[in-house]
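Subgroup meeting minutes
Present: P.N., E.W., G.H.
Scribe: E.W.

1. P.N. recapped why we're keeping a running log of single-chain structure predictions: easier to compare across weeks, and new members can see raw inputs and outputs side by side.
2. G.H. added today's entry (99 aa).
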Amino acid sequence: MNATVALALTDTQRQLWWGAIIAGLVVVLAVAALLTVLVLLVRTIDQRVAAVKATLTQAAANTADTALLAQTAAGVDAVLAEGLEHHLFLGRVLGKVRT
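Output recorded in log:
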């Protein structure tokens, strides 16, 4: 028995196969485009998170020396008190000198 089987497609079947191949190619291209957009968005988010982290690190560094604020405030108060004493003294002395 020497039987050869020829697989022939009808025109409708051939059109359906080409339609399926083209549809598959469109889906693959759409998925590739969406994944590219996703990668770009994730990269942008990552860069912005890094920028926020750097800003927070700078804020932590700026507030690390807050313990010195009380000491500085006390020094400023002492300078102001000294200046006030000089002002009062000069006001009294200047009044006596002019008369």
